[in-house]
Each structure stands twice: as structure tokens, then as C-alpha cells.
Amino acid sequence: MNIFIGSLPYSVKDSDLQGFFEEYGEVSSARIITDKMTGRSKGFGFVEMSDEEAAKKAIEELNGAELEGRTIVVNEAQERTERKPGGGGRGFGGNSGGQRRSNGGGSSYGKKDYNSRRDY
């Protein structure tokens, strides 16, 4: 069974996570997810246990437990859903403030509102 562990302290390593779960049974793998650019922990990871009963007991007993001063979240990992391409931006235009652009003010469109331009 694949187990998700969230709210992990950033100092926890793969081997620490494996040792924490080995109290409940054999751990096939333990992995902390890291940022690709910095290599730092993202604060969550996954543990794979072959014995489903041991995995369920670990989830039940470790969810809400404290690890290095942080309350961790432990539950069965869900299948990853396919994400839409595009990265989740705010749409085109780059105006992240959620306000309309002002009329004029040095705009190359003169006094017209940017959104009213029809020749695109």
C-alpha cells in the first residue's frame, strides 16, 4: 500500500521516514519529495508497505502524530490525476491584481480600454 505523509519537518530524510514506519512492518520504499531546483524537501513524502494490514495500522496510529515538533498527516495515497497543461496561470494579459487596466496613461492603444480592442 502506498502511504502519503504530509506536514513533515523539512529536516526529515528518506531514512528517517523509513525508520519511523518500520515499527509497523516492512517498508518497501520511503521517499521525501524535493524541489527540483533547490533540492530542498517540500514537506511531504510517500512510504510503500507490502503488508496492507500493517500499512493500515501505521496510518491509523501515525495520522496526527508529532514528528520533530510538527503534527503530521498520514493517509492512503490517492492516484495522481492528470493535470491540464498550462501551469495554472491567471489567463493572458499578465494583470494579476484582478483590476482592469486604466484608459490612457501611456498605453499604445490611446484612450480605448485594452479589453475593447477588436482587431485581434
List the helices and strands and how they pair.
Elements: E1 2-6, H1 14-22, E2 27-34, E3 41-49, H2 52-62, E4 66-67, E5 70-71, E6 73-76
Antiparallel strand pairs: 1-3, 1-6, 2-3, 4-5
> What is the helix fraction of residues, given as a range?
10-25%
Element-level helix/strand string: EHEEHEEE
Q: How many DSSP H or I helices?
A: 2
The main sheet orders its strands as 2-3-1-6
What is the name of the CATH topology of the domain at 2-76?
Alpha-Beta Plaits
Radius of gyration: 24 Å
Q: Can you summarize the main beta sheet?
A: 4 strands, antiparallel
Tell me how many strands there are: 6
- Poorly predicted residue ranges: none
CATH-assigned homologous superfamily of the domain at 2-76: RRM (RNA recognition motif) domain
- Cα separation of the termini: 53 Å
Looking at the overall shape, the CATH architecture of the domain at 2-76 is 2-Layer Sandwich
Structural class: alpha+beta
Name of the CATH first level of the domain at 2-76: Alpha Beta
Strand share of the residues?
25-35%
Overall geometry comes to globular
Report the average pLDDT across residues. Answer: 83
